[in-house]
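call fold(seq) -> tokens
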Amino acid sequence: MTEIHKPASNGGFESRLSSFYFASFLIPGCYLAYLPLWLNSKGLSDLQISIIYAAPIFLRSACTPLLTFLADRSGKPLRFLVICTWCAMASVALLPLTHGFYTIFFVILLFTVFWMSVIPLTDAAALAGARLYDADYGRMRLWGSISFIIMAVAGGAAIDLWGPETALWLLVSSSAAIVFVAQWLPQDAQFESASGPNATPRIRAPLRVSDLMMLVRRPALWIFIAATGAINAAHAVFYIFGSLHWTKSGISPSSVGALWAIGVIAEVVLFAYGKRVTRLTGTVQLIVIAGLASVLRWTTTAFDPPLALLFLVQAMHGLTFGAMHLGAMHFLQKAVPPSLSASAQGLYAAMTAGAAMGLASLAAGPLYRNFGGEAFLAMAVLSGAGTLAAIMLLKQWDGELITRTEQTVS
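ret:
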């Protein structure tokens, strides 16, 4: 394989991806923190809310790997990304017309088919930029966390003023914003040659299903997915019922927004120093740290600590999600060939934020209904299982590509 030289100019790659991350994370900032309040205001039960959140995640397990594989095969993953943003906006625009559980469920299902491929394709593009231009993934991704904070704080204040119906319109306007910013994404042509404009273009062979199968047969990949899947899924009760639980405990929506924000602020700090932190700790070691912090966070949360302590516990989100995600991205960058980058991101998203989170979300409704805040203890147990898997990965992976398959020839 020919030596890869970094192009002299990246065409504003970092700023373009940073802007897109900023727009993209307005949606989860509303969808996770406040849409359950709107669903509750529409008369939906705790079980129905958990189904609405869990079922689309299961659908993600099938749709996201397919869409990201097609994006890799087409050689135009960013074009796929833009199409997904348009389809997601068109879907969520139907939500104000819905009435009752079944129509809301169907529209959110449709929306998530497209939306849940947006972040994996964005992460794949960001990691490609990290390879070609020495771009800093953490410093691009932190703008998504910043926008999440803004939505958490501003959304809480807006709902205080105008009520839970506001959450719906925040989601609709956020989906329109991401389509607008998508028009300034880098072009796929920026990734077609890794050697600059004067180099001989590399010919990309069509990606085959057999190439993907070489990747999925690697044990290290599945140990990695088990570790990150369990640690990520341990956030399920918090994501679905955290805001409801705190408001029922007498915490105001503005304070709830601040609780969400403090966790993501810690995440931003970690991402800002992501390269330095990863060099200091090691890639898989970051995932182990995330698992240990997750056990402590959910165990403490289960006992309804006072608000001041709850802010400290929420700051651990920088570790329980931030360290896990940063470690996962660096693992995928080092362990997976660039030609399979979007496919690997899709598989990772489908299994961790898809199947694992879907099962945990489906369990969250009965757990919260029967045990209230003590449901967080089940999440602590799940985190412990993920930590053990991460320790296994330390022994399994040597820090190199887990498959040498490449889809480019000189």
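The chain is about 75% helix and 0% strand.
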